[in-house]
Design goal:
A two-stranded antiparallel ribbon has the order 1-2. A hairpin with a 6-residue loop joins strand 1 and strand 2. It is an all-alpha fold. The radius of gyration is 29 Å and the shape is elongated. It has a domain of 62 residues.
Length: 153
């Protein structure tokens, strides 16, 4: 029997299995991995239950292996250095170069009276977990303070 299909992954000709007439991938291991990866990608995009189940499974795995990424970075310095270089490049492509890190804010303490400099939120580059969003309401305009209630009309 002559090959009648072209593999969607490698482009090689193959004969589909008799019970799978519309087979799109040949039986080689790399092509089957590509098939599964494509299926998973599509499933994650379209199926919210599958997506939620995958998130739960990943969270469970991370809880069982809390030091995995720290150990990986320690044992793979080339990957770590490449990631740092690529992050610097991504930051450089952003419109503003500053990056806020998780530990950028000091431990919480009550604010003292005084003047504070606030920046426009559009000027921020990357916000992380500890970034604070602040809303200040002006209660009175400067220079309109009245000394006494009797002076009001």
């Amino acid at each position: 029997m002559k090959p009648t299909h072209i593999c969607a992954a490698c482009g090689a000709l193959f004969t589909p299995l008799a019970h799978i007439p519309h087979q799109r991938y040949c039986s080689s291991k790399p092509c089957q991995l590509a098939r599964r990866r494509t299926w998973q990608h599509e499933r994650m995009r379209t199926d919210s239950d599958y997506r939620a189940n995958q998130a739960r499974a990943q969270a469970t795995w991370r809880a069982r292996h809390p030091d995995y990424w720290r150990r990986y970075r320690e044992t793979h310095p080339a990957c770590r250095d490449r990631n740092r270089m690529m992050q610097r490049e991504r930051n450089a492509r952003r419109s503003v170069g500053r990056v806020a890190k998780m530990d950028a804010s000091p431990p919480f303490r009550p604010l003292a009276s005084g003047f504070y400099l606030l920046c426009d939120a559009l000027e921020a580059s990357i916000a992380k977990m500890d970034a604070w969003t602040v809303y200040i309401a002006v209660l009175s305009a400067p220079g309109l303070h009245l000394r006494d209630c009797k002076e009001r009309t």
